[in-house]
Amino acid sequence: MSTLLEAPAVTASRGSASLHAWVARMRALLLPERVVWCDGSEAQRELLLAEMVDSGTLLPLSEELRPGSFLARSDPDDVARLESRTFICSAREADAGPNNIWREPSLMRAELDERFAGVMRGRTLYVLPFSMGPVGGPLSRVGVQLTDSPYVAVSTAVMTRVSAEVVDLIEAGADWVPAVHSVGMPLVDERGRRIADVPWPCNETKIIAHFPETREIWSYGSGYGGNAILAKKCFALRIASAIGRDEGWLAEHMLLTRITSPEGRSFHVAAAFPSACGKTNFAMMQPSLPGWRVEMLGDDITWLSRGPDGRLWGMNPEAGLFGVAPGTGHSTNPVAMRTIAQRTIFTNVALTPDGDVWWEGIGTPAPEGLIDWRGEPWDPARGAPAAHPNARFTVALEECPSLAEDWDAPRGVPIDAIVLGGRRSDTVPLVTEARDWQHGVFLGATMSSQRTAAAEGTVGEVRFDPFAMQPFCGYDLADHWTEWLRLGERLGARAPRIFRVNWFRRDADGRFLWPGFGENVRVVDWMLRRLGGEVPASESVLGLVPERRDLDLEGRPLPAEDIEARRGVDPDAWWRETQVIEHHLDGYGLRLPAALTEELLRLRCGLWEHIR
Ligand code: OXD
Ligand code: MN
Fold first, then answer.
1. Most buried in the list 160, 292, 569, 571, measured by CB within 10 Å?
2. Quick one: pLDDT at residue 12?
3. Does domain 12-57+82-248 have CATH number 3.40.1670.10?
4. Among all ligands shown, which has an atom nearest to the Cα of 225?
């Protein structure tokens, strides 16, 4: 018995000719055994979950301890985003920029045609019509993902609004983005013989390809996160950034939050942090100072545009959270812990003997009898973590207890401040306010951060991650900075202020100089007092910095040298930093906006004064 909507029933009543013609064409290419149209319903979710429990892809967790929740264990070779296998196939190589790996579109199409031919033999093809942003909203966009992974189908229904109404919108003429995904492991070979399935099918070859001009996405070989849930990084950032460039808006890797001070003043902050640098923690902050309130609007992606009132507005296009589990704990992020109390899909975390989840940093000691993310008994003596460092939870935004009531307002919220932050153990001080918009764009363009486990690469290595968009901008980042500069011109005096933060600075012994998490409200407090014109700031070569007395450190007596180390600017280290920045900016050649070269010169002149 199946209550899933089979394609023929749907084609009879819904869908535009173009959508159905495309699905039919894809069906002929992919050769799935059956086609299921997804409608985002609870009944369908239940069915897919039950099927995945039967097939061994999901393990149900204890109904008592973690109701409605499941654990997935991925293939050990499919655990993170693969930037080295992510391609931008723009017509002109120069449009992809030095930040992307470019592939000539017709060559990529030829490779995809070959890889996708018959790739779904023996599998089910799920058709996922989804909306980024409220269905039918003025800033929302729709897409349709095809996938042969039920895990991706269920995850997409959490992360986006999957709905039959999207088909209606397409039928009524809405533009839509086609996205095709396959795990790359057919269950029937060319000679018609069946192949046994595995809990986490994938292929050792992986390709995540984007065609910005035709707004298409094709992903092959991986079932993990951003490689496979194409609505997220592929659509809402890479393709949306290209759409935004053409239409005058920005798709950004930013959290979105409303912060209310004890006096009842509310501000909206959009903040760009590289992957796995605490965006979810900031978005769900439980402030350490009394009387402050933080409401969650989004933890990963914000679409920014100039509103009819001339201000900058931000809208979270997603409907779910795909958060990093390790480091999320009862003391560091109690709101996240409540969010994932139920109806959550965990991937690559450890399993406790009583059927609950565990990971490093959860805040409780590892219980005896823990099973690690690979499904093996965990032996701490071996030194390997029990949960994979990029283990994730997938959960609907609506499960978050601090979610703002108006989280799905069609136009989002007006932005008061933009915060930029990377993970730097040295050099970059706790907080700096940009002198003006152009300086803020320079701060964004020169953001750098230590790599995390969110993508492949050497963890800890410092790399530039401008506006936290290095892996996610679907076009040349130099053009992205030009778009930011233009936006500033359009916003004029109504532009939000820009701040740069670094929660991750350490002392010579490797100790964090700033406690972070809920204590970050002390920095936010300063920012908001700056917005209100209530406190002066000191001019430094790096921008405006707080006077020591203006950072509210009450109840947190910290040694004076720590405070200075947090605020401090080391001119020699910064001189070296400018050399690396120059090299980074030079990499963008003639497309680099002159305004950024001007800002670099200004920084150097300021430092020169100190070094002499
Ligand atoms: C994410 C990422 O999953 O940035 O959000 O990698
Ligand atoms: Mn992200």
1. 160
2. 31
3. no
4. 1
